[in-house]
Write a structure and sequence with these properties.
135 residues; alpha+beta; Immunoglobulin-like
Length: 135
């Protein structure tokens, strides 16, 4: 009887309480073998930007209140970075009939091409310099 009462109270409260949206996910390294803690995470939903940091287990979550317009069918875009790694992903907000909407977007961080190209350029220039000096 008690669970039924609790369910009834929650369903009635659902019509009175504003519906929030939670955007959550996990930040992974480039080969998806490890979660990335303390990554900087930026979430944009309905043009509203929210920033957070991933926890020690790589998870993150941000909350949007109903007035921010991040509701059912809206796309949430997540961008994460840590050091020279960065990545982005998106997910659609779904209304599961609860008092909270949910969007899940996990992000894989990959090395930025600019850093890799820069390192290769420097090593290439040093190699050419050494060859020219020998002659």
């Amino acid at each position: 009887m008690m669970p039924i009462m609790a369910l009834l109270i929650l369903s009635l409260a659902g019509g009175v309480i504003a519906k929030n949206t939670v955007v959550a996910g996990v930040i992974w390294n480039s080969d998806n073998s490890a979660k990335v803690p303390l990554a900087l995470v930026a979430v944009t939903c309905n043009s509203t930007l929210k920033n957070t940091t991933s926890l020690s287990d790589g998870t993150y979550a941000v909350n949007y209140v109903e007035s921010e317009g991040c509701s059912d069918g809206t796309t949430a875009t997540v961008t994460a970075s840590k050091g020279s790694l960065s990545g982005s992903s998106s997910g659609t907000v779904h209304d599961f009939g609860l008092t909270v909407n949910l969007a899940i977007a996990s992000v894989t961080l990959t090395p930025e091409f600019g850093i890799i190209a820069g390192v290769l350029t420097v090593f290439g220039a040093l190699g050419i310099f050494m060859i020219v000096r020998r002659k």
